[in-house]
## 1
Amino acid sequence: MSALSSKQKQLQSLAPRLTALETSFAQLNAPATADAIARFRADSAAARFHLHPGTGPAVVAILGGTGTGKSTLLNRLVDANISAASFRRTHTAGAVAVTAREHGLPAGWLGVDAHMVPETELPARGRLDQLVIVSSDHELLSHITLIDTPDLDGDQPVHHLQADRAFRWAQAVLFLVTPEKYQMPELTPYYRLAQRYGVPTVFVMNKAESRDVLDDFTAQLSRVHGFSPQKAFCIPRDDSQLIVPDEQNLNCLKTHLRQINIPSAAADSAKKETNGVQGLKNRLTDLLSRARDQVLQPLLDARAHSDRTTAALRSLAAPEPNIDVHPITTQLQRRLQQKSVLYLMGPRRVFDRVRQVPLMLARLPRSTWDLFRTGTIRSPKAVEGPPDDWQETGPDFQAALADQLRLLQARMDDLIRSSRQGERWIAGDETGYAAVRISPDDAAKIADDELADLKAWLEQRWNTVPRDTRVVQSLLKVIPGGRKLVEMSEAAPYLLTVVVASHHAMFGGVDLLILGGYSLATWLTEKLSNEVAGRAKLSNERIATEYTRLAQRQIDRMIGWIDAQSPGKAELNTTLTEVESLFSEVERV
């Protein structure tokens, strides 16, 4: 007996570690396995209760199918209308406990909120995820506490979960059947678990009408389910003529219930104590096995899949937006070229101008003819802005950037949904998944901001005289007759080209000054072209840089969301190590 008591103490010493393990599981950020974690924590709390059951009356749960009369039987056992019963619909959505006033239930029993029901509110009805408690002075309750439970075979799975929870906390079980439901498959797992956990069991057939059905039920308990030979108690249907032997009637059932003891706490023999210890070991090993197989292993698999998905997302380098704003700057480049003397006087163009002199003279603007005719030039407008449709002439950059981001998001979505695990992640957190997706409007805003800066630059440069023209004008001012040429160039820069190309001797060495400066012309011409092209290139680079940052932020946000779907690998391995350690400790007892 001392060795067995030592084993009981060894098992009881594991209770604090179970509590710590429950805390570890509660801290796991695992929405996909939240139900399995909640189930483990509830079962672990029940296991800790059985390690330290206390010395009060044994808690007996009544389990059965729909319409077997569980609530009615409880009322008949305590001779009072305590639990609501109906032949039309179930009233027991949660556990209803009937206790003695002087004892009550152990603190925290069932692990849910408890609600005391006064006699004025009887009969009591069970409530989901609550324990309804009713006190009574009936003599039977000084020996046991009775628990009415929901149906095991109802059409509402949540009721089954409530009944299962009561079974795992119960210290003894009364299985209630009827002639129509004594072979219901939902009872078989609980028969097996009751044997494995060493839980005292009582079998009652309610609404019986013939002896043959009762005998067949008793035979099945021994032959099929492996219970030691015992007789099932019988309660005949009210209108039945069945005579039940005294050793199987309701009074005998009450007597039998008074004698139920908790094996691990009140063992009067080595055999009973051995059964109690082995039942606790089986209960703990099953609990830890479910924790490993139903919680940790799926989380480890999800973590591995998350790492693979994260690596694949990181490989999605933010694509270049392929935006080119050169079409917008083309008009400015042409205008600056038209205002550039040396651009117009380039080596290749000058000969073209010579051949085109008659045609060019015919197309001279009004300001040039005024200069020839009157010797004066009309004052040009002080400020001339770029065309109003300067931006509309180019591509829709906003739509292009928004579509580029949508394309990236579609690639990420396809990557995640390509696996069942990814589908489960999205189905379990649709709101969070939608929240991490950046709005395409943010991508379009990149183009809005940069094009606004580019437009401001274009407006600033629109009326600027190119550097080469300013240099030539400065040189002309120091040459005799040069001021007239300056006026010509200010009126129409290409006029100077026409005059020099057609009458180079007219102005002495002016044409030689210009045409002889080919090296200067080449440099200034390239700078003129590169100035606008460089500004367009800068805008392209800015747009590409900002879009790349936005795309990378989208990838990082999606990776963060995936990481949040399962705990870290180190955290999971630590918890798994603790489960395996506890498992080994239980096996050594």
Note: Residues 77 and 254 are 7 Å apart (CA to CA).
## 2
Amino acid sequence: MIQFKVKNSSLKKGFFCLFVPAVLFHSQLTAQPTGYSYGRSITILGSQVTGSLSNFPVLISITDPSLKQAAAGGRLQNANGYDVIFTLPDCSTVLPMQLEKYTASTGEYIAWVKLPTLVANTNKLICMFYGKTGVLANPSNPAVWDANYMGVWHFNSSVSDGTTNGSNLTNTGTTNLTGSKIGDGRRLDNNPFVQSSSGSIKYLQLPNGMFTGVNNFTFEGWVYLETVTTSWERIFDFGKNTQFNMFLTPSTGTNGIKRFAITINNNGSEERLSSATSTGTSAWHHFAVTIDAASDVGVFYYDGVADVSGTIDLTPNDLGNTNANYFGRSQYGSDEGLYGTFDEFRISNSTRSAGWIATSYKNQNSPSTFYNISSELTATTLCSILPIKIGSFEAIPTNSGTVTISWTAEQENASDKYILERSANGSNWEAIKTINATGNAGPQKYTTQDLNPIYPVTYYRIQQVEANNSITYTQIISVKLNEGALNNNSFIVSPNPARQLIQLAFQDNVLPQQTRVELINNVGVKVQVQPDFNGNTISLKLPRLANGVYFLNVYIKDTKHTRKMLIAQ
């Protein structure tokens, strides 16, 4: 029986009862997706994420014997790899995904999974389930690509668009190449010196009029160049002639220098982003270009890093009704065809952030270092230990200068633990408490105290260490110290433990002629410090000290106040 207390209701205040079998409540939280026999947790590493990203498509690329088809000794039942899904840590919220490649004989599995949020330095946990009989339909969902994607081309034995837009490419002479950057790629064997006007040039073409109404713009893609000794070859060239076009070349002439340009009045009026570095050959490199119409800024990225930026006030819409939108071919007949391979091209009608480009590069360049994958578990076991769910998390200041931190956890295991972390700025963190989970079924509330919060604002988060050693973080919360703490105490000292700096906060301004500060070690020796007075605060920059207990003495108008300090450098 679960009891609920009624407050502020027309009903009589008190308790009423709702009969719900507790075992059903708990099993509903932890039940695995129906029919899936096996699972793994995947921890997206926050250290690999730049910025705060929404609806981000993460590449999951795994080759594992367990992912072979059952006939080849693995767990998957469908020869096309259809019996794989991804969920949030609740084991029930299925994430949109798109399967790019599956090899039943080796267990190679490549898919794109849409994550609602990714935040720098905050790990993100998802679950992968597989091994269900009777799955016949492809679980791929184009919703993995947000509404800003105009086209996504995996080039995996196909030139079709992965979005719902139907922006399929027209292929002229290019061929599929296995073992490319991500699965298969598209090879353009213009070897070498085939001009764009030649009937033998190999290229791909996008639909006509694709850029009408497009102001903000992002291109992303991988390119493998065999050579840059050809002249003015194109990664892309969108437009309708030499007067109206927008292009990206890896080589202006035969020097390998990269350039993005857009014009509506021939090449003499181009707005350009010209790199000062040459393009690498015989290796995969990530190219990206963005245009922000509101700020008139264009940025050219190379291998995830902004290579050059500048003023670009033209937009793709200014090109008009384009009918010559090429990958690998130029509007200029004498420019030569590209000799190399393309993989994972994308175009958006939005300006992707620098964090988005950097995270895409890290994820796609080295998937194995972008996340950690747990060992295989039965689906039932995986969902019984994952995740620790924080239902509430709050910090409340007290009049005594401390902070009370509390949270409610669900689905925990007795071997889980919570590490409470504190920060002065929301970026640099220190662990201040470790609390072991009780492992009780159902919601469990935890409360603890921070006896030495940082003045005037302290940030908190909880590092959740789960039974399988997976680590995730809660959201960050902040608390402003109650001024009553200063009324009841002469001053607040933070942080404690201290490393390089001690700050003292007073209710009113303090004057150097009325205040003296000294720091004493545990054997009575005075440490030389120089107080820095600034209104109602005093800062002490610490020299190199031995770790241990110290005593901070503050004399205010001849009245001595002492605080015990721990210094841990």
Note: Residues 1-30 have pLDDT under 50 and may be disordered.
